[in-house]
Amino acid sequence: MNKLERKWNTINRCIICFMIVELIMLISYKLYNYAPFGNNSLACMDATIQYLDFFAYLKDVLNGENSIAYTFGKTLGGNNIAVFTYYLSSPLNLLVLFFNECLLPLLPHNNRFFCFICVFLKRNFKPIYYES
Fold first, then answer.
1. Could you read off the pLDDT of 26-40 as tens digits, one per residue?
2. Which pLDDT band, with edges at 50, 70 and 90, does 47 fall under?
3. How does DSSP assign 67-83, residue by residue?
4. Is the distance from CB of 47 to CB of 54 less than 8 angstroms?
5. Within 13 A of 38's CA, how many CA atoms are on the CB side?
6. CA–CA distance, 116 with 112 (Å, rounded to integer)
């Protein structure tokens, strides 16, 4: 078996393992009525109060309906840059543009999926550096 075949076998094993885990998670979501199959959410403790509200705020900022620098709603009339940099500055949070506000509880699950894709791509594909 040459090097390319071994690499593809490794890639295929990673994809199969990921798909098995995702299938198990989707089945458990269906059995226990978690979103998107029911009304329950994986957001617990302060996530329902804090993170989902911040995701809704980020969606408003990206749609031009709110300001990133100052808001009265999130920080009781103060500077909001610290909230953005600590909670919302991940590039994966830009996925909030593709969700309605009622579907925001699905966002943490999708962020986990895209984190897996990023790690998978980084491990299996080397960057090309050009000399000038």
1. 898 889 887 777 777
2. low
3. -SSEESTTTSSEE-HHH
4. no
5. 12
6. 6
